[in-house]
Amino acid sequence: MTKLALMTAQEVMDLIPNRYPICYIDAVDEMEPGKSIVCTKNVTINESFFRGHFPGNPVMPGVLIIETLAQAASVLILKSPDFYKKTAYLGRVRKAKFRGMVRPGDVLKLHIDMEKVRSRMGIVKAVATVDDRRVCSAELTFIVAEREEKL
């Protein structure tokens, strides 16, 4: 039986400002508002970064794994009624550890747990896995601000 996503990629884009080619969340699989979220990023050979990282040995750059975790965290933060229709900016990355490579064909699962929320700030614990194997973990701090409208 196929499990339906709680949010599709289009619904994610309705919430966060990221767009192609740097919107990396394909689906939200689980969410406990204000507490935790699990998202999916399907890593394909068509990703533009694989052309240069690295020819003949495609590996997802670590900074983009962190960005993908940050986008998943943004969805969790911005689903809160206090922060809806705002923008969550990544303010700090702490304790980042990379334990494995992410390659084309991998399904990256992004596990985010909210640690603290203050008036305009949040701290999350973030873990990325492939086949239940931890490939990256970090503590991410966010600052939430009003969304700037297009001119």
TrEMBL record:
A Pfam cross-reference name: FabA
Entry's localization field: Cytoplasm
Keyword Hydrolase appears in the UniProt entry: no
EC number: 4.2.1.59
Top-level taxon: Bacteria
Catalytic activity: a (3R)-hydroxyacyl-[ACP] = a (2E)-enoyl-[ACP] + H2O
Positions of transmembrane segments: none
Record: active site: H53
Record flagged with keyword Acetylation: no
GO MF terms, alphabetically ordered: (3R)-hydroxyacyl-[acyl-carrier-protein] dehydratase activity
Keywords: Cytoplasm, Lipid A biosynthesis, Lipid biosynthesis, Lipid metabolism, Lyase
Function: Involved in unsaturated fatty acids biosynthesis. Catalyzes the dehydration of short chain beta-hydroxyacyl-ACPs and long chain saturated and unsaturated beta-hydroxyacyl-ACPs.
HAMAP family: FabZ (MF_00406)
Name of the protein in question: 3-hydroxyacyl-[acyl-carrier-protein] dehydratase FabZ
Organism: Limosilactobacillus fermentum NB-22
